[in-house]
């Protein structure tokens, strides 16, 4: 009996040690990811690392980009975001829009919300331009006479399935600046920010009714259906959901294995 008790005691100690070791590794991994997200969120101006993306001058429009954060929004900017969201999104939400609008208003002013604001540059003649290797003209230096805002991007650095990701909450543009390559330009900027910030992927949610946006993300930008999309988690429940989740992973094997699924 004493011998058996001794062995049982040792077995228990061994099991406890293994469990504690696994728990420690899990906590260490989570802390490491939290540190990556905190570091990314701490950058006051992610655009500063990509000066070529400060300005956009193509297809007859000249624009200026500026960074922002949710808890620093001015009253006019808040109002503009609310109006543009309603104009662009109310038809996709239908009868659910009043309740969804309240959610979005809370989201937009959260401290973790990060923004890229897009403004017109009325006096483009004051700007210097250069030619890229692809033969495109781009603004490189400008005495900015900032005009009206014409769109914005709301994004956050978050953890999805144990992977640090840049999640695009909103990409909203006014109708008059769409179809001119601006959406692709902004998504390229976000992908650059994500990679520099050591994110494993860029993720976003799209309404099933928004076929134009789905085609843009999947066919033009090559985003894939995420394994976190409702239709992949619970197919029967996913059919009833009005949205899908898309993602693009980088050189991050875990992100590819955990997040990326297939073409839509």
Descriptive overview:
This protein has 264 residues and is an alpha+beta fold. It has a domain at 1-42. It is built from eight helices and eleven strands. The strands form two sheets. A nine-stranded mixed beta sheet has the order 1-2-3-6-7-8-10-9-11, sandwiched between helices. The chain has a two-stranded antiparallel ribbon with strand order 4-5. It is globular and about 80 Å long.
The helix content, as a percent range, equals 40-55%
β-strand number: 11
Biggest sheet descriptor: 9 strands, mixed
Strand percentage lies at 25-35%
Descriptive keywords:
264 residues, alpha+beta, 9-stranded mixed β-sheet, 28% strand
Give a short overview.
The protein has 264 residues and is of the alpha+beta class.
Strand-helix topology:
Blueprint: H1 2-42, E1 55-58, E2 61-69, H2 75-93, H3 97-108, E3 114-120, E4 127-131, E5 137-142, E6 149-160, E7 163-173, H4 182-196, E8 201-207, H5 211-220, E9 224-226, H6 230-233, H7 235-240, E10 243-249, H8 253-258, E11 260-262
Parallel strand pairs: 7-8
Antiparallel strand pairs: 1-2, 2-3, 3-6, 4-5, 6-7, 8-10, 9-10, 9-11
Helix pairs in contact: 2-3
